[in-house]
Design a protein that fits this description.
With 210 residues, the protein is α/β, with parallel strands linked by helices. It has a single domain, classed as TIM Barrel (Alpha-Beta Barrel). It has helices spanning 5-11, 28-37, 52-59, 75-84, 96-105, 116-124, 140-148, 167-171, 187-192, 195-206, and strands at residues 16-20, 42-46, 66-70, 88-90, 109-110, 112-113, 129-132, 155-158, 179-181. The strands form two sheets. Strands 5-4-3-2-1-9 form a six-stranded parallel β-sheet, with helices on both faces. Helix 2 links the parallel strand 1 (16-20) and strand 2. It is globular and about 45 Å long. Pathway: Carbohydrate acid metabolism; 2-dehydro-3-deoxy-D-gluconate degradation; D-glyceraldehyde 3-phosphate and pyruvate from 2-dehydro-3-deoxy-D-gluconate: step 2/2. Belongs to the KHG/KDPG aldolase family.
Length: 210
């Protein structure tokens, strides 16, 4: 059985998973509400700021939202994310220790890969929904299409350099379920509390597969 069935279900909620760097946990709930209202319910909060875990706690209370923790690197990250209320995890790569920690905590994981060998290694472990990262630096949509030809049983969420200009290139691929993007929550709009503007960006992103 696929160990990433739940991860695929979450990735399938909308074409874009917002990749969020939250500096102020006090803004987290309003940010999540704006993104969910705009049609992007799956939210990845990266563990890159001191506020990240508190942001996950706040976002976990938002009706209709599914909040996950990104930039999982160590087993300690996994345990802290799960304790904060994360419903899934995202990692830039994958190690045996990280995978074991996620399985022990019951945290669905979207592990990152950049090559066919990495993807095959995770497939052997039962993971067939993966993050293609860093997407643009690793060859973009043409590279992901090429990887998909011999590995049709694996689906991906490309992340890293995905933008409104190239998102459809990725989303049109048969092996892509969704893409990760940070443009739906620009830092300045978050700082300004422009939740209506963020909701508009989210709504536009939610229609990228229409």
């Amino acid at each position: 059985m696929s160990k990433t069935q739940r991860t695929r279900e979450i990735c399938g909620l909308a074409p874009i998973v917002p990749v969020l760097v939250v500096d102020d946990a006090a803004q987290a709930r309003l940010l999540a509400e704006a993104l969910v209202a705009g049609g992007l319910p799956a939210l990845e909060v990266t563990l890159r700021t001191p506020a990240a875990l508190d942001a996950i706690r706040a976002m976990a209370q938002v009706p209709g939202g599914v909040v996950g923790a990104g930039t999982l690197v160590t087993p300690e990250d996994v345990r802290a994310a799960k304790e904060a209320g994360a419903q899934f995890g995202v990692s830039p790569g994958a190690t045996d220790m990280l995978i074991a920690a996620c399985e022990a905590e019951g945290l669905p994981l979207l592990p990152g890969v950049a090559t066919a060998s990495e993807a095959m290694g995770l497939l052997e472990k039962g993971y067939d929904m993966l993050k293609f990262f860093p997407a643009e630096a690793s060859g973009g949509a043409p590279a992901l299409k090429a990887i998909g030809a011999p590995l049709p049983q694996i689906t991906f969420c490309p992340t890293g350099g995905v933008s409104p200009a190239n998102a459809r290139d990725y989303l049109s691929l048969s092996n892509v379920v969704c893409a990760g993007g940070s443009w739906v929550a620009p830092k300045q709009m978050v700082q300004d509390g422009d939740w209506a503007g963020i909701e508009t960006l989210a709504r536009e992103a939610s229609k990228l597969m229409d």
